[in-house]
Amino acid sequence: MSPQTGAGTAASVHGQADLGICTLNDMRANAEMLSNLSPKTPVIADADTGYGGPIMVARTTEQYSRSGVAAFHIEDQVQTKRCGHLGGKILVDRDTYVTRIRAAVQARQRMGSDIVVIARTDALQVHGYEESMARLRAARDAGADVGFLEGITSKDMARQAVQELAPWPMLLNMVEHGATPSISAAEAKEMGFRMIIFPFAALGPACEAIREAMLKLKRDGIPGLQPEMTPQMLFRVCGLDESVQVDADAGGEAFEGGVDLK
Question: In which family does this protein belong, per the annotation (predicted)?
């Protein structure tokens, strides 16, 4: 599965830090784009707080499902939320959190969707481990399919959380150099996690590569890309050949001459 991250959406779409900048429309549009890059690849999307009360959470669930998202997680921060790996988070009470989860589960049932509802709690930093477990148990009882303890601070804690909530599936959020120690996919599987996401696995290398490329352009006056890095290659990554085939299969003639430069 592939993750769609709220922090990544805030950074790439708005050029902003993850401080509650993104709206439902921002997140849904980005999730839909990612889900349709490779429809056979399930996407886990960030739904933040659900963007409002039960009616908005239900709307979020419906829109994510219709956009092709396979699973999404909802958290217990207030609307003016922040990235899970920043400090100073403010949370809603447990009952409000459970209401969000219940609204998502009921919306999924009403529309006959198989979208997976993941219950995330950020309570660890604010209220501690026991309250975090209590919130996840309440979310589980409200019908959430998967649990997500954000900001795990040790491997022992990770293993304990999985064991306490077993056999309910648990997701591990592996953000390197964040609050959670580095845990490999193999190690997470051994601990009992059923899902693991790496939200910065593409963002980090992309940021580094773009910075280096811009410094090279400033220094040399030309990007100096590798010969195979052509516009056609980039477009093919984005589905150029498949789109041309759609036109041909329908009897179109717009691309009979091909698209490669002669």
Answer: Belongs to the isocitrate lyase/PEP mutase superfamily.
Amino acid making up residue 138: A
User: Letter for the amino acid at 37?
Assistant: L
Instruction: Please tell me the least confidently modeled range out of 128-142, 181-195, 202-216.
Output: 202-216
Which residues face 172 on adjacent strands? 196
Q: For 115-162, how does the pLDDT look when each residue is reduced to its tens digit (9 = 90+)?
A: 999 999 999 999 999 999 999 999 999 999 999 999 999 999 999 999
Rounded to two decimals, what is the model's pTM? 0.87
Cis peptide before 167 (omega within 30 of 0): yes
CA distances to 1, 45, 145, 148 from 194, in Å: 12, 16, 11, 11
On the question of pLDDT at 169 being above 90, the answer is yes
Q: If DSSP codes are grouped into helix, strand and coil, which group holds residue 92?
A: coil
For the chain, the domains span: 2-204, 225-261
Cite the beta strand spans of 169-259 per DSSP E: 170-173, 195-197
Phi-psi region of 191 (alpha: psi -120 to 50; beta: other; left: phi over 0): alpha
- What whole-number distance in Å separates Cα of residue 216 and Cα of residue 224? 8
Residue 207 CA: distances (Å) to CA of 14, 93, 124, 198: 15, 37, 29, 15
Q: Contact 75/9 with Cβ under 8 angstroms?
A: no
Nearest Cα neighbor of 258 from 236, 228, 225, 229 is 236
- Length of the chain in terms of residues written: 262
pLDDT at 256 over 90: no
pLDDT tens profile 11-28 = 777 777 877 778 898 889
Alpha-carbon gap, residue 206 to 41, rounded angstroms = 21
